Amino acid sequence: xxxxxxxxxxxxxxxxxxxxxxxxxxxxxxxxxxxxxxxxxxxxxxxxxxxxxxxxxxxxxxxxxxxxxxxxxxxxxxxxxxxxxxxxxxxxxxxxxxxxxxxxxxxxxxxxxxxxxxxxxxxxxxxxxxxxxxxxxxxxxxxxxxxxxxxxxxxxxxxxxxxxxxxxxxxxxxxxxxxxxxxxxxxxxxxxxxxxxxxxxxxxxxxxxxxxxxxxxxxxxxxxxxxxxxxxxxxxxxxxxxxxxxxxxxxxxxxxxxxxxxxxxxxxxxxxxxxxxxxxxxxxxxxxxxxxxxxxxxxxxxxxxxxxxxxxxxxxxxxxxxxxxxxxxxxxxxxxxxxxxxxxxxxxxxxxxxxxxxxxxxxxxxxxxxxxxxxxxxxxxxxxxxx
Length: 387
Description:
- The chain has 9 helices and 13 strands.
- With 387 residues, it is of the alpha+beta class.
- It starts with 11 loop residues before the first helix and ends with a strand.
């Protein structure tokens, strides 16, 4: 299986292996040039916090200001009968708030897993690397307008161990790691190792899990495992376009979900930061000046929600998307409801993780993973489009 250990900030040279391994480079010379340019850009971001794109207005609490978004009501609002028919068997309203543009509940709760899902509006946004993001890979270009034509529900947080356990208990499902007998797990020094017996039940060294582990995001699950859960729950994995619209929170022109500089505002999410650096002293490219108090994963919803009411889209664990990964997909992708290439060998992962340096937290960052990959920094959340 492919080892996503290249996504960890163990040291400058190790962390940058991801750049070399990315398939969008012509050869060693191009790789070295990109690595050098990317690293200098990262240092500039950390050193001065300069925003490479348009300025970002923040509130006194450090959260982003009023989102700038284009929302299109592309269909008339549904009637109560249509809403009931759509939700029947898999979800129910969570509260009484109704979205006026669609006629659907603003929040629902899945019947299986009991997760709350939030309605994300349809609309058009600019997808891909923003001008000034000098760390962006060629796979994130060109920046292009994308229309999500139907509003969609998305889990407000990553699928937890508790939810996944319900799925396993109900179906008897065995994950990729359980069948194979191993998975990639960071050891006590933070070094990723393919470990015998490492599964979603034992994501930490020695087969352990924190005392509040049921509310941590499930990890060590492959794309195949995530898809099996979604099928059971009557939902889907989000498309890459849905994920990027969600993580942007309605804002255009940002490199990171919070703006264009580092570090992130206090309480924004669980990243490789000062707390991780204290524990894993060999890690080099961490978010200096930020401390989330977690060395590994954190319970979901521990940090602030974004403007759409979604938690942990950046950090905690990488999240599987439905799409196949295409190196040059953005060069010819449809402008309306892109769903990825028709085929491929790797799926898309988004959002960064507790164990990867801040560059993976950028809103346009996209990384490939084989459908059988499973390690302790990979999880998922679910989505479902309106009819």
